[in-house]
Every structure is written in C-alpha cells, then in structure tokens.
Specification:
single chain; about 180 residues; 5 helices; rod-shaped
C-alpha cells in the first residue's frame, strides 16, 4: 500500500498545488477585476464631479446674471421715478405761471403758427380767460378753455399747447436731459 499511499500523496499534493494555483489565479483575477471596477468607479466619480462642477458654475453664473438684471431694473425703476417726480414738479410750476409768464408763453405759441391771421382763436385756462378777457394780442379768445397752457385754432387746424401735451411730446428728450444732469 505504500505505492498506493505514495500515489495518493502525490495526487493530493498535485491537487493541493493546482488548488493553490487556482486560488492564486482567482485572487489575481479578483484583484484585477477589483482594480478595473475601482478605476471605472473612480472615472465615473470624476465625471460626476466635473459635471456637478460645470453645472454649479453655470448655476452660479445664472444666479449672478439674474441678480445683476434685478439690480439694473431696480436702478432703472428708481431713475424713472426720479424723472417722473421732476416732470410732475415741472408741470405744477408751469400750471402756476403768473400772468406775465403765461402771456409770454401764449405769445410765443401764437408766433409759432405758420400763417397767423384774423381767424386765430386762442383757448386759455379758465383763470387766465377771466383775467384777460375776450382778446389776447389782438386775437379772439375762445369760449372753450384748456386745463393748462393754451391751444390755438386756425380754421380747421388745432395747435394743442397744453403743458401736459407738450411734456408728453418732449418727454424722451426731457428724460434724457434730466438723467444727464442728475446722474453725471
């Protein structure tokens, strides 16, 4: 049985050696597979971090851009409020012209009519119509009145020189001038 024992021993040694080799090979393959998966996971992790960083930067820029737009809008709104207040105060001052200033204004408006003639009819404010009467600079004062400023009728033509109308007409230029004077 010694021969059989030797054969068994040899087979057992060979099986043990093969098992160890297989185990070692499995360990190496497992390690290699782990390294590959770890590398894949590391690569994916970096990709996710890069994407998150890019999205974070984009989000930050969007937030900053929105904040700048809101700030700009707030400044524009404040400037518009200032301009509106100035124009309202101008209108109030114009409405409170004394008689001399008012007549100078009316005279300048009559002179701007291309062909002044006898058919000119001048519309005044109710207050000034009462003070001035039926004639102003030799022209007929209309029975109709205006809220502010004056208006002039020449036949079918009507020249609206009410202060609110004039301010609206020149508003864009006035706004620009006001902003330049205040915010220089």
């Amino acid at each position: 049985m010694s021969h059989l024992d030797n054969l068994m021993k040899e087979i057992m040694q060979q099986a043990t050696k093969e098992a160890e080799e297989l185990l070692e090979k499995a360990k190496l393959e497992s390690l290699k597979a782990s390294e590959i998966e770890e590398a894949k996971a590391e690569k994916r992790s970096k990709e996710i971090l890069q994407k998150a960083e890019i999205e974070g930067i984009a989000q930050k820029e969007k937030i900053i851009s929105n904040a700048k737009l809101k700030a700009r809008d707030m400044v524009l709104f404040a400037k518009q409020e200032i301009v509106s207040n100035v124009l309202n105060r101008v209108l109030e001052k114009l409405k409170h012209f004394d008689e001399k200033q008012y007549l100078c204004f009316v005279e300048s408006r009559i002179k701007q009519v291309k062909e002044p003639d006898d058919t000119i009819e001048v519309l005044l404010t109710k207050e000034m119509k009462q003070k001035i009467g039926n004639k102003v600079f030799g022209y007929q004062v209309s029975e109709e009145t205006v809220a502010s400023g004056c208006s002039i009728k020449v036949g079918e033509l009507f020249y609206n020189n009410e202060f609110t109308t004039l301010l609206d007409f020149y508003k864009e230029d006035l706004e620009k001038e006001i902003l330049e004077k205040i915010f220089v």
